[in-house]
Design goal:
The structure holds 2 protein chains of 2 kinds.
Chain A: H1 2-23, H2 27-44
Chain B: H1 2-28, E1 43-46, E2 62-67, E3 74-78, H2 86-98, E4 100-103, E5 105-109, E6 129-134, E7 137-142, E8 159-161, E9 168-170, H3 189-203, E10 208-215, E11 224-227, H4 232-244, E12 250-253, H5 262-269, E13 273-280, H6 293-298, H7 302-310, H8 325-346, E14 353-355, H9 360-366
Parallel strand pairs in B: 3-5, 3-10, 10-13, 11-12
Antiparallel strand pairs in B: 1-2, 2-5, 4-14, 6-7, 8-9, 11-13
The chains are: A mainly alpha, B alpha/beta.
């Protein structure tokens, strides 16, 4: 059960970061967000 | 506006490429390297043959059987309980690829905790692989984690209550196979693997069982043979034989109140005579410097040399030569041979006779690769 809650939270946070990534105008901030997204997406896909 | 979209697209593409590369790299860890057993292998099975509760999971692992066809005892050799201990896994592979049994049977499980080979320990900077040069090219082996992959068993509890002793340990230890014995069929994956190994020992009537390990040079339990108190004579006989071969091993009794370990629970819950051996591996120590393949294989580290010279700590480290892989693998193989010799002396009705394994001097002279098949 904890696993599913964790994945749901992660998916939500990832979604929010993706929205911010698309809205962001400064490329440096986009790079920072991309680095976070990379790890989150791998974790959602259970790749580790 | 166009510039902003362009940067978004470029960063997205770079991130996607990095993601694909990382996914491929992680994915490779889930494909165990091929092993090449000696021609005397009689059967290859899976651990799930003894407990189907682990079938289809990353906990399932290969079990190799060498049956001489001549009546005698049965030995179990386990490597890779902790997949970050290179010589533990490699010694079992060298034995698997050279062994000939002329009386009794030998069962080998090179990857006791198979799940631990599919990940690495976070924050340790361990290399993912190490290569051993052989006559036919370089063989690559995984350097895994001390514990079960969190993808297979998550989350860890804050405090781990060991079953059935209820001994309390750090939550991280809940994924440590060598704290999980005797295991249980309805437990977590690590407990199920432990349970399967106990089932194997029972069903195959294993008489003597080995669990190979490595530890940090500064840990007190290093270069040792840990034995269950019921079988002290066998351990002492082997220690004497090893001394005569020029190898010093400290005999250590398994603590009665430290539960979940193979040398304790295999002795308490099965009829097998259990032994655990440890070699000194500087790449695992807290004092180590750059953690790379060279440190894993050559085992030489100036920090340990300096630490030993201070005399402040008891450190199992050879200042001049370090602790190279051939030295560590050679010690494990010699320990395995001498403990079986000693067992045969005390249990002549259950003889196990093995041949074709390199001794320590040959291993030091020729290197590990000489004894790998590929």
């Amino acid at each position: 059960m904890l696993y599913y809650i964790y994945t749901l939270i992660l998916a939500y946070v990832t979604f929010v970061v993706v929205i911010e990534f698309l809205k962001e105008k400064k490329w440096r901030n986009q790079v920072a967000m991309a680095m976070v997204l990379l790890i989150f997406i791998l974790r959602i896909l259970q790749i580790k | 506006m166009i510039r902003n979209h362009l940067s978004t697209i470029i960063i997205f593409l770079v991130t996607a490429a990095a993601g694909v590369i990382a996914a491929i790299s992680f994915g490779k860890m889930h494909h165990p390297e091929e092993l090449y057993p000696s021609t005397f292998l009689t059967k290859k099975g899976m651990l799930s043959d003894y407990f189907d509760g682990i079938k289809g999971t990353n906990g399932d692992t290969e079990v190799y059987l060498f049956d001489s066809g001549v009546e005698g005892g049965t030995a179990l050799l386990g490597g890779g309980t902790h997949a970050n201990e290179a010589a533990s896994f490699l010694a079992s592979v060298v034995i698997l690829e050279n062994l000939k049994v002329t009386q009794g049977r030998v069962i080998i499980i090179p990857r006791m905790n198979n799940s631990a080979f599919t990940c690495s320990d976070p924050m340790e900077g361990f290399p993912e692989y190490f290569g051993i040069p052989t006559d036919n090219g370089t063989r690559t082996f995984r350097l895994g984690s001390r514990v079960t992959n969190p993808l297979d068993q998550w989350p860890d509890p804050l405090v781990f209550a060991q079953y059935p002793s209820n001994q309390q340990l750090s939550g991280f230890e809940t994924r440590n196979l060598n704290r999980a014995y005797p295991g249980r069929p309805d437990g977590n994956l690590t407990e199920k693997v432990a349970y399967a190994i106990i089932q194997l020992i029972d069903k195959e009537n294993v008489n003597i069982a080995f669990d190979l390990h490595e530890s940090s040079p500064e840990v007190p339990i290093v270069n040792v043979i840990v034995y269950h108190e019921k079988y002290e004579d066998i351990a002492m006989g082997a220690v004497l034989g090893l001394e005569m071969a020029g190898l010093q091993f400290s005999p250590e009794t398994s603590p009665k109140n430290f539960h979940g370990l193979s040398h304790r629970e295999w002795g308490d819950f099965t009829n097998a005579v259990p032994f655990l051996m440890e070699t000194s591996n500087p790449s695992m120590g807290r004092l180590r410097g750059k953690t790379d393949v060279d440190l894993v294989l050559r085992g030489y580290c100036d920090n340990y040399k300096k630490a030993k010279e201070t005399g402040a700590l008891r450190i199992a480290y050879r200042e001049d030569t370090g602790e190279p892989i051939e030295h560590r693998v050679g010690r494990h193989i010699m320990g395995f041979k001498e403990l079986i010799n000693s067992y045969n002396y005390y249990y002549p009705e259950n003889q196990i006779v093995i041949e074709n394994l390199p001794d320590y001097d040959l291993m030091m002279e020729n290197g590990v690769g000489k004894y790998l098949n590929n």
